Amino acid sequence: MASQSQGIQQLLQAEKRAAEKVAEARKRKNRRLKQAKEEAQAEIEQYRLQREKEFKAKEAAALGSHGSCTTEVEKETQEKMSVIQQNFQKNREVVLNQLLSLDSKKGCPLRSRKAKDADLSR
Predict the structure, then answer these.
(1) Helix, coil or strand: residue 70
(2) How many CB atoms neighbour CB 103 within 10 A?
(3) So what's the pLDDT on residue 63?
(4) Residue 77 DSSP SS3
(5) Cα torsion 82, 86, 87, 93: sign
(6) What b-and-e string marks burial along 25-64, b requiring 16 or more CB atoms within 10 Å of the CB?
(7) pLDDT of residue 72
(8) Which burial class, exposed, middle or buried, applies to 65 when counting CB atoms under 10 A from its CB (0-12, 13-18, 19+)?
(9) Rounded to an integer, what is the distance from CA 105 to the centroid of its chain?
(10) What is the pLDDT averaged over residues 94-98?
């Protein structure tokens, strides 16, 4: 009986050592997975930064050419506005005098039309 009890004890001890080895292997595996995950995250971050840098360079190149077009359009617009403003200042008095002379000669066409419409509606 003693040898049987000793054999059982040996089996229990062997089972305990095996469980400890399995637990240690699981810990090592988890550490390796964690390390691999951290390395992958660092690699992903590095790749993302590289792609973002490339994108910014392409964006700057595209916007740089677009910016010069915008500047040209704004310059042309300012020139056209200046010409329109000059024409306005030059012709302002003439047009006002013409309008005033029409009003004094024939009467205001809008007033007479409103009067006619008012008479018709009565």
Answers:
(1) helix
(2) 13
(3) 75
(4) helix
(5) positive
(6) eeeeeeeeeeeeeeeeeeeeeeeeeeeeeeeeeeeeeeee
(7) 83
(8) exposed
(9) 62
(10) 86
Mean pLDDT of 15-20: 97
Separation of alpha carbons 88 and 22, rounded Å = 93
Average pLDDT over residues 85-105: 85
Mean pLDDT of the chain: 85
**Residue-wise DSSP of 6-19:** HHHHHHHHHHHHHH
How many alpha carbons lie under 13 Å from residue 28 in its C-beta half-sphere? 6
* Tokens (6 digits) for 74: 């704004």
Structure-model confidence comparison of residues 115 and 57, the more confident one: 57
User: Which amino acid is it at 46?
Assistant: Q
* CA distance linking residue 33 with residue 73, whole number of Å: 58
Q: What is the pLDDT of residue 105?
A: 62
Q: Residue 73 is encoded by which pair of tokens?
A: 């359009």
